[in-house]
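User: Here's a structure from my thesis project, written as structure tokens. My advisor, Dr. K., wants to see whether a designed sequence matches the one we expressed. Can you design one independently, without my sequence as a hint?
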């Protein structure tokens, strides 16, 4: 920054103004070239990021294909085992039932001890309407007492 930039009256007229404009345009050009270089660097970084992203996408797609193949194999194996299980149950079902009946565990019916006063047996709760429980009728005529 020069003294002529600080004091506008010292700037010239006519031809001097053109020189100032050329200088300003050169500075602007330099700024734009710097910005263009920075943008080029940014574009290079973005291209690198894009390349890395494409590599990761390919790896992920390969992993998904592998997992889908494993899933198909496991489903086929599961279906085969289910069929074998059904066949074995059909073949040995009677034998398994006989063994279960032979080794069953029987438990006698439980009886609740009521030795203490806090452990008294309860009786069913009467859930009839109050007038049925007390053998009374509701008042149908408010002026008449039954």
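Assistant: Designed independently from the structure alone:
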């Amino acid at each position: 920054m020069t003294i002529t930039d600080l004091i506008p009256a010292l700037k010239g007229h006519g031809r001097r103004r053109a020189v100032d404009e050329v200088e300003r345009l050169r500075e602007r050009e330099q700024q734009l070239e710097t910005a263009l270089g920075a943008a080029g660097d940014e574009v290079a970084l973005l291209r690198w990021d894009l390349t890395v992203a494409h590599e990761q996408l390919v790896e992920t797609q390969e992993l998904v294909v592998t997992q889908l193949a494993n899933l198909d194999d496991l489903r086929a194996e599961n279906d085969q085992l289910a069929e074998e299980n059904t066949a074995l149950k059909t073949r040995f079902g009677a034998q398994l039932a006989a063994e279960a009946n032979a080794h069953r565990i029987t438990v006698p019916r439980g009886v609740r001890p009521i030795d203490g006063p806090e452990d008294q047996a309860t009786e069913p709760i009467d859930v009839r309407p109050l007038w049925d429980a007390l053998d009374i009728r509701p008042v149908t005529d408010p002026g008449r007492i039954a």
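When you compare it with your expressed construct, this may help: Residues 15-102 form the longest helix (88 residues).
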